[in-house]
Design brief:
heterodimer, A: mainly alpha, B: alpha+beta, Growth Hormone, Chain: A, 2 domains, 11 helices
Amino acid sequence: MSSTLRTLLLLTTLLLPQIASAHSPVKGIGDFLNGMLHPLLVPAQVLILLALGLSYGQHQPSKQKTLVLLFLLATISGLAVSGFNPLINSDNLALLLLISTAILGLLIISNLSLPQPVFIVLGLVAGFLTGLDSAQETLTGKAKLAALFGSGVGIYFLLLYAMALSESLSKKHWQTIAVRVLASWVSASALMVLALHFSGRTGL
Amino acid sequence: MMWKKVSGTCKYLLLFLLFITPIPVVHADVVKPALIEITVNKQGNVNIEIRASIEALLTGINGRYKNTQDAPNAAEYDHLRHMSSEQLMPEFKKFEPTFLKKIKLIDNKQHEIPLSISKVKIPERGYTKVPRISVINLSGKVDLNAQSVQWYYPLSFGDHAVRLRQVDLEKQQFHWSEWQWLRNDKLSEPLSLTEIVAQKPLLTTIGNYIELGYKHILPKGTDHILFILGLFLFSIKLRPLLWQITMFTIAHTITLGLAMNGIFDLPARIVQPLIALSIVYVGVENVFNKGLQKSRLILVFGFGLLHGLGFASMLADFGMPKNAFVTALISFNIGVELGQLSILFAAYLLIGLWFGKREWYKTLVINPASIIIALIAFYWFLDRLDIGILG
């Protein structure tokens, strides 16, 4: 029952982007909460965080702590850099995020036992890129700081939810298969967007 | 004897001269304060009756002068004073926009009540050696949820006394406030509306104040939200959480009651930074906590006392009905408790349920979230010190 409720909550959370329009702030909820919702409103960020969370959830808890804390540091760094308004092409960022998602997804599906540094590097890249992709070009001063802070919280908790879900599905054999199926969907979604992008049919 | 005779003759001569000498054309009027009565009926209709010298208003001769003749523009006053009411009326009409712009009636939520001139009555010239007191009637409408109003009448218009009358014609109930004598160019003290106009059925009062208490926590009370989240993060087990929340609730109820009864209060410039510091402390202690100890409970109790003062300053701004003071206070407190319980429930659904039993809960959830809470609260602390650190 508890697990069902959690899954339901996650699905409800993931449905939120469909209610709000991507990248546009939700009026009246303040900069911090808008920042918090930002990762949910950017599909590339949702996909990478899901992939990373699913991957981390399959690790030992002691390793998870290191992986997540390093990811957090990388995210904070990315957010800090984005705060200086660099001229970053968000399309390129989305591209990199999707490529990372596809790689991570494929790693989960293949169930390869790779050394931890590989996941550390992937986490650092994903965290930094996600933070960098959360730039708030239209805001300045305290509003920008609040929004970036909110984005950091949103990114972090989205990763934790995905990780907790994956961890919950690591006890029985069929559950590990379910995680791999989920990862395949995530990976497929990323690959599909990439394919459409490279074929010139859609932007990112 | 001789001197007495001369003196007596002089007296008669002086008396004679007094009668035969023509009186110089000087009209020495005493500058009188305006009397203002604000009437508010049960439907919220406002009628303001201003009894004042329009001549003094137009010439700006106010309480600085004891007598109109002391003012440099005394001649202008005299000229107006000699006008008939029909002649003076157009002069006042020209002045009306300035008059309306300068006076103010503000409710306790700081909303200015729009006023318009409904009637002006200027008496005939009469005896010109005394001021002519005209009557200006203004009308407006006050929000029925308003608990009090404040009146502003600029000093340039003269000293004045103001009082408020509440009327319920249907029940033939009337209530007068005390007169307030105003000559400091400031807003009057709040004139209560709670005796008749803002008097509401008991259930409405309870509902209004529960809603107010709830909204003060959710979504407006970000500092209280963080404090409660801090308590939640300390331990999601029911016993420590219950102890902390109970201590906090008892404490803030005590200071809220004391402050609202005017027994004890501290200025906001002291309370608000301390509230922020209390959140910093809760955040920091969460990181280093080794289980629930008495010291933590005592501190939470102390912080509750502070937060109660914070609630009180907010409640004081909203105003309290004098006839249902205790009911409103308890209802507000219930609202606050419901707000706190909502936060705990949401926190359990979003955090406790998902992560509470994970091995990494402390490292990856409690510690980062508590550090974030402490950082935000420390920012508020610096901001609330209001010493320009944050620009």
